[in-house]
Amino acid sequence: MPNLSLEKALRVRGLTIIAGVDEAGRGPLAGPVSAAAVVVPERWRCKGLDDSKKLSPAAREGLYAKITEDPKVVWCVAFAEVEEIDRINILRATHQAMARAVQGLAAEVQHCLIDGLRVPNFPWAHDGVVKGDGISLSIAAASVLAKVTRDRLMLEHAREFPHYGFESHMGYGTPQHLKALRNHGPCRIHRRSFQPVAQLALPLEDC
Questions:
Q1: What 3-state class would DSSP assign to 78?
Q2: Model confidence over 32-82: pLDDT tens digits?
Q3: Structural domains of the chain in order of their starting residue, each with its CATH number
Q4: Cα–Cα distance between 82 and 6 in angstroms, integer?
């Protein structure tokens, strides 16, 4: 289970405001990518918190409430929208969303722990932590906030675009989603630069 060992090691070096950073939604064919940054207090605990991918939707929602309602936790969620993803590519857009999340924190961050690899030209000192959402509690908290926030947004899009089943796959390339793309073509929130949206010779008008 994730813990605060990495954060503790940074505190020993005199760094006290440490943000865990993670993203959700790099792989889907539709919708934005979200990123969250979370600063948790020393010796903070949150029962059941883990990598969001290992948790049920109900567990994620419960943890989201615990994290966001804790007055000692500082957090922010930010997005890169579909237009930006198509313009600058998904990796750069993800990095932009991460930077926006850190920038939006009501705290002067001294160091970041980012899930995955280091981010080139990131505006804050940071460490990349591979599989960090299963190692660091602050990254795990960020993973839950990013995932829940994006899923909620995709449920809103499911009501706006009911043909695609976004409520069941959140924009990922499931057989159901691919069939809907073939039948209806892409809608406003599809990533036109992604396969198979760009590769199936589909009409590009909005639905």
A1: strand
A2: 999 999 999 999 999 999 999 999 999 999 999 999 999 999 999 999 999
A3: 5-153 (3.30.420.10)
A4: 33
